[in-house]
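re: that chain from earlier
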Amino acid sequence: MIVSGIGGPKKCLAFRRRGGDDALKFVQREVEVALSGLWDILDDRFWMNYPRQNSMAENKIGQLRAARRIGLETPESIITTSPEEALDFIHLHGDVVVKPLGGGFVRHGNEANLIYTNRIVEQNLLHIDSVRECPTFLQAYVPKFFELRITFISGRFFACKIDSQKSEKTKDDWRRYDFSAVAHSPYRLPEDIQDELARLMLYFGLNFGAIDMIVTPGGKYVFLEINPNGQWGWIEHLIGMPISQCIAETLAHPPLGDT
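^ sequence. v structure.
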């Protein structure tokens, strides 16, 4: 089979001029199907994350279920479009966060805004009926001593401790970055946590993942999520972990049986 000449943006724009937005959407879907089909048949090559498995692993619902089955601690969670169920969950747990199920990016024109993890406050309950409009992901708040961003690369762990509770700005979501107040430092994961995370990555067939965890004041490790395409450059820059070197070595010399 020969795959050639998949149209780019200029061809899509020309098509829209002739057929309108519906035609443009059709072309965009066809491009996506062509590319995903091409990637799918390259299963005899080494992928850091094979596209189909990468896509499956982005399912946060599936992540939480798999993590719990493997033995990792996870927050109590609910996904609902019922305001009554949401209120019951909030009243049951008292302290609750709301977060997006997907990537959390909302576009306004040319701007992309990130929806962060946010604590539910009394004022939010005035708008509880809006839960009907969209599946809403609620989790019981987990007290934090510090947080971990763990970069997994083909069996190796690069764990970064993030002192997110040192700044009001980052207490609920460290992605609101406050580098002057929030220290980042290398961290050694306990062997049992490494084993459970390695089993989770194997379950999803991932060679790479950025894993978020909380360590509570009582010393519990609580799994939040895997980001199959997670960022790691800022960690390497701040604390000198050789993450890019490990990625390059893995791509140059794939693990046995993965080529």
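The chain has a mean pLDDT of 89.
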